[in-house]
Amino acid sequence: ELLYGLARARAVLKLGRPFDLEQCHRDARPGLEAMQQRLEAHEWLALEHATIADIACYPYVALADEGRFSLAPYPAVQAWLRRVEALPGWVPMTN
Fold first, then answer.
1. Is the pLDDT of residue 1 over 80?
2. How far is CA 63 from CA 6, 21, 33, 60, 67, in A?
3. Could you tell me the domains of the chain?
């Protein structure tokens, strides 16, 4: 859901890919809603500490704004982004 939603929305705007942007946004919502629900009760996606699940999902979510997707309705997801960014060794993404 993150790939077909968030990543494709970004690909439409950054790379000119021929996907429907609104459909990409609709496709992203279930994945983000599931993340929001999980992260309301837990700090991390899979276990009670950061795992590869967090690292793998981070880029898709962190770049959501590049696909004109707002994370405002997902405060637990926003807090999770900050936790990932606070991990030792975290390096910011560059364009």
1. no
2. 8, 15, 17, 6, 7
3. 2-85 (1.20.1050.10)
